[in-house]
């Protein structure tokens, strides 16, 4: 049974054009092809990334955060209440008024006390600014390294300047050592993100992030096995370019460097739109959708690879919508938070002035419990 599944999975027609078989990709003295067995190493490398990240966040990112005035703040520990805690964990973190009335009777508390308990309990679970600062620092260091490595690996390659060169000689294209390490490092990193995703900061686009990570891993793994390595490296380079600016803006956001954060964010928005909504669809997807047909008839791998690229494009459009909303607030109002984040709720009672931080470290001054107020960075 396993043999039949393996035989079907590696059927030539799924991975290669109709006039080729796996026998045609036998390595020779000057030709080295990517093998699926090479991908097994990303598992131990992903674990190494987790270890390096742990050490980086505590030995480098934490002191670095202190230089920016970002430190671990002792949050308010909510009073333990077994009835409310059970409801919070099993039913809802935002009870309706009818449920609040029922909980008041069980706890012999007033409605205001129950509402305040749930508000503080929700805030207690929100990640600290230091945690978010360390995560952003780690990703920034990685993206700077991979983008620099990608430029070094690609700047002298003909397909970097002429996309038709991507398909010259396909699939009999020898894998370069730089391409090998570029792929292994990127895939190991994204696998480490998948392994850590339940422990990292969760934002409103949590589901989209999961789809993005798995789509990226699937796309890279398939392009590796089908020898779509040339275009795969171009896709990685495009994505890393804007991510550097995003993580930089987050760092200055958490440090409350308002002008620096806003300036970087505007540049990031422009680079994101150019690379992911212009270059990615009109150059890269055009290269994978149109040019291959000049060299071989379409096959399953051709359709599957382009489908995964379109999935990434849809995610880009979703994030571009959030980014443009933030740009609109920046230009016509005030850029006060990451659109993907949940705000920390005020903990003071009505009639009192409260100062709270939103989920990305911006200070929000309000009057009253949940009332309107002016937002400031």
Written account of the structure:
- The chain has 377 residues and is an all-alpha fold.
- It is built from 12 helices and 2 strands.
- The protein has helices spanning 2-9, 12-15, 42-67, 82-90, 97-107, 111-125, 129-154, 177-196, 206-225, 229-254, 258-289, 300-332, and strands spanning 353-357, 363-367.
- It is elongated.
- It starts with a helix and ends in a 10-residue tail after the last strand.
Task: Provide a short characterization of the protein structure.
This protein is an all-alpha fold and 377 residues long.
Strand content: under 5%
Number of strands: 2
* Sheet with most strands: 2 strands, antiparallel
The radius of gyration computed from the alpha-carbon positions, rounded to a whole number of angstroms, is 25 Å
Element string (H = helix, E = strand): HHHHHHHHHHHHEE
Enumerate how many helices there are, as a single number.
12
Mean pLDDT score:
80
Tell me, what's the shape? Answer: elongated
Report helical residue fraction: 55-70%
Taking the alpha carbons of the first and last residues, their distance comes to 61 Å
| Low-confidence runs of at least 5 consecutive residues | 347-377
Structural class: mainly alpha
Biggest β-sheet: strands ordered side by side in the sheet: 1-2
Which short descriptors sum up this protein?
377 residues; mainly alpha; two-stranded antiparallel sheet; 12 helices; 2 strands; disordered C terminus
């Amino acid at each position: 049974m396993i043999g039949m599944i393996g035989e079907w999975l590696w059927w030539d027609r799924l991975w290669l054009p109709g006039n080729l078989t796996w026998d045609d990709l036998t390595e020779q003295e000057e030709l080295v092809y990517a093998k699926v067995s090479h991908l097994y190493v990303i598992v131990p490398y992903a674990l190494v990334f987790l270890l390096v990240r742990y050490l980086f966040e505590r030995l480098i990112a934490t002191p670095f955060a202190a230089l920016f005035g970002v430190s671990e703040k002792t949050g308010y520990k909510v009073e333990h209440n077994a009835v409310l805690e059970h409801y919070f964990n099993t039913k809802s973190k935002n009870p309706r008024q009818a449920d609040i009335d029922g909980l008041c009777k069980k706890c012999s508390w007033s409605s205001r006390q129950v509402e305040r308990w749930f508000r503080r309990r929700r805030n207690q679970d929100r990640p600290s600014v230091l945690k978010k600062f360390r995560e952003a620092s780690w990703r920034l260091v990685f993206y700077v390294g991979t983008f620099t490595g990608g430029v070094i690996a690609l700047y002298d390659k003909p397909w970097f300047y002429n996309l038709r060169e991507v398909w010259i000689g396909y699939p009999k294209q020898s894998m370069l050592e730089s391409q090998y390490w570029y792929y292994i490092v990127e895939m190991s990193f994204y696998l480490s993100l998948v392994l850590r995703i339940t422990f990292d900061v969760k934002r409103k686009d949590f589901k989209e992030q999961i789809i993005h990570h798995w789509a990226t891993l699937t796309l890279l793994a398939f392009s590796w096995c089908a020898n779509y390595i040339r275009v795969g490296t171009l896709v990685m380079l495009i994505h890393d370019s804007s991510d550097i600016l995003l993580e930089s803006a987050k760092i200055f956001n958490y440090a409350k460097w308002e002008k620096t954060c806003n300036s970087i964010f505007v540049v990031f928005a422009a680079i994101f739109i150019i690379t992911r909504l212009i270059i990615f669809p009109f150059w890269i997807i055009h290269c994978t959708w149109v040019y291959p047909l000049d060299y071989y008839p379409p096959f399953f791998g051709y359709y599957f690879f382009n489908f995964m690229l379109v999935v990434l494009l849809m995610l880009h459009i979703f994030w571009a919508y959030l980014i443009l909303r933030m740009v609109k607030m920046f230009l016509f109002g005030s850029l006060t938070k990451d659109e993907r984040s949940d705000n920390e709720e005020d903990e003071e009672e009505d009639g009192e002035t409260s100062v709270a931080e939103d989920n990305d470290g911006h200070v929000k001054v309000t009057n009253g419990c949940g009332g309107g107020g002016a937002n400031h960075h």
